[in-house]
Amino acid sequence: MKKITLLIVLLFGLSTGLKAQIRAFQDFFFVANGAHDYNDCLIFSPETFNILDNDYLDLTNNIRATPSNVTIVNTNNFPYLNSNGTINLTTCNLAPGNYYIPYDIYETANPSNISQTTFVLYIPFQDSAKDDYFEIGISGGVTPNVLANDFIDCHPLFPPYSEIDNVHWISTSNAQFTLNVNGTITVTPETPPGFYTFQYAYYTFNLGTSDISNVTINITNPISISINGNSYQDYNGDGITNVGDVINYQYSITNNDTSPVTNISVTSPNTSITGTIASLNGGATNTTSITGVYALTQQDINASFVTETATATGLDSYSNTHTDITEAITNLNISSGIKLNAFYDTNNNGTQDSGEVNVNFGEFRYELNSSGQINNVSSNNGTAYIFETNPANTYNLGYILNSDFSANYSVSSNYTNVTVTNGSGITTYNFPITATNAIRDLAITTIPISGNPRPGFTHTVRLKYENLGNQISYGDIGFAYNPSNYTHTSSTIPHYYSFNSNNLEYLYFDIGEIQPFTSGYIDIVLQVATIPSVNLNDIVELYSGIGDLYEDYPSNVETNYNNNQSYLYQTVVGSYDPNDKNENHQAEIDYDSYYIKDKLTYTIRFENTGTASAINVKVNDMLDTKLNANTFKVLDASHPYKVERVGRNLSFKFDGIDLPPSVANTQIGKGFITYNIEVNPTLEAGDIVSNTANIFFDFNPPIVTNTIDREFVSALGTKEFNHSKFSLYPNPAKTILNIQSEKNIDSIEIIDTNGRVIHKQRIDNTNGTVNVESFSNGIYFIKLHNDQNTTTIKFIKN
């Protein structure tokens, strides 16, 4: 009997071991969180819920039930149960509550292997407040209802929203926004434009407080601007996109409010704006009243596009100011041509490396098609452009140093038979300038930027100081004037010391460190005395000088003293001429004391006295035949420029200057160019150098300036030397030249007509002698130094 029982147990164990023990466990699903559909119902995600997740095909061996090994029997035909065990529904498919859904699973390979259970769904009550966005004008008002897009128990709310017992702010501290009991928001007038975001919720007795939602209110700017048109104009009609062409803009202004906006204007950093709008009604747009003109620069052409940024400003009905900004990009056609580039080549490698600056030490020269006509061109920044549309044209390119620099610097680059291929863009040709020695060369120029002095008016002069050397210098500037003629009013740099001596008032300015090839300015405002302290046609003088604070050290001695002093003689006038020409000497120049390497310094002033901006300004100047055109050098200009010279013909071009109408007692709408030049060595006593300029504003007829005459008169013998008398005799001299003076003479230099110093000598006395017997026969200049004063006298060696 025991044996039979054991056999039965063993057989039962074997049979059950061969059959999988399928098992389905009860599921409980709570639908509370998840994505919302367009009806604000929670989506029951199939990826999240599956009734097979806790079921087993073989519980003993831990084999999970999957759609591939079991079959689901939906015993109650629950419509949202899928054959793979997932459930597809939203909370809006079923009313809130608990749902018990029976189901069976059986082994697909053995249908008799079956298990039964249920899954439970809990559908909660749903209430949801949705985010809102409203726009309202500066005049304020009432927004639409925040409840209009909200839900309760998966159903939209409808007016009059009787299901809602309360709607309230969750957080707001702005008294200009009131959430009303009916769900609208009252906005106070004059609320500043901008975006305001607050949180709110609603409350029902049945469901409690809803979700928290955001409401964003955009208080719209009453004024908005856009650029309605931006068109390129070939201003000079040459068919090339170049400096001085323009972009024309048409601005569109819209009033986004219901009340008028007044006093509307548009500004732009670099565009000349014309027109305003006195008043613009609510909801209206104006596209014609305000226009702009922008003059192209070389930087724009290099970039091949222009970005315009414009700001509109206006007053709302409460007199509050509002602004709006817009931006537009205009693409430009690529110009093809040549860039001429002069720079100081610090390391002598022929390439412009980082930190190597452009310099204006002379003129670029180019010859077109080997015609023999040499065109000279220079600019304020050491570069120049030649645009070309004909690929058959050839250019020979070079650079010539000004006489002020040729003794210390050199340039060797030349290019021949250069052509420009259409569509090739800009090709750069470098002209590296080098120096073999340490050069210290401070220079100063006195510029009459306000014209001639007038009794009782202020008079402004500009001192331009430069470091033309390749070493750091430390500038000290002296300025002197006659206090009977002027009173110092102000200066852009305060003076550190002043004193009066010999009826002259001296001011001293510490400039500090001046880096190589850099410059700076001091504008000095003087009050001109009234009549009879000064009278019309009086000649008044100003003096400026520059030196290195540490010149006592041998390593800091100036290489070139010729540009360390600047005199300005002017005639007192009774009326103001906005477009004129000046020269720094007196009308009569002492021929005997005029050193051949001295310069005549001209300033041409121009002023836009019209009512609209001048896009381009051109100044033409024909040099007198008694001037050495090859020594022409620009010293300064009020605006970026390019000057072209063919022989004695000068043409200063201020392309794209966009000069506005002038404003009295300011430099707005005004400009100038200052240059110096040597006379020809063949100049004789009695010669008169005349000069006149023609000024062109856009396409208007030229304005002809006054004529400047400088007559060279001879008066060999006794000379004024810093308010003392001196004598130079015999003149002509054969062996010994005698010098006598009422005041001490420190030293002398003798210079030949080529500008070379051939003799130096200490005197340290009121008289002295110089042995000139070894000198070749000819004309020489003797430069006498006394304290900080210098004068130059011509003498002849027989």
Automatic annotation (TrEMBL):
<dbReference type="Pfam" id="PF24595">
    <property type="entry name" value="DUF7619"/>
</dbReference>
<feature type="domain" description="DUF7507">
    <location>
        <begin position="237"/>
        <end position="321"/>
    </location>
</feature>
<dbReference type="Pfam" id="PF24346">
    <property type="entry name" value="DUF7507"/>
</dbReference>
<protein>
    <submittedName>
        <fullName>Conserved repeat domain-containing protein/Por secretion system C-terminal sorting domain-containing protein</fullName>
    </submittedName>
</protein>
<dbReference type="InterPro" id="IPR047589">
    <property type="entry name" value="DUF11_rpt"/>
</dbReference>
<dbReference type="Pfam" id="PF18962">
    <property type="entry name" value="Por_Secre_tail"/>
</dbReference>
<dbReference type="InterPro" id="IPR055354">
    <property type="entry name" value="DUF7507"/>
</dbReference>
<dbReference type="InterPro" id="IPR026444">
    <property type="entry name" value="Secre_tail"/>
</dbReference>
<dbReference type="InterPro" id="IPR055353">
    <property type="entry name" value="DUF7619"/>
</dbReference>
<keyword id="KW-0732">Signal</keyword>
<feature type="domain" description="DUF7619">
    <location>
        <begin position="577"/>
        <end position="709"/>
    </location>
</feature>
<feature type="domain" description="Secretion system C-terminal sorting">
    <location>
        <begin position="728"/>
        <end position="796"/>
    </location>
</feature>
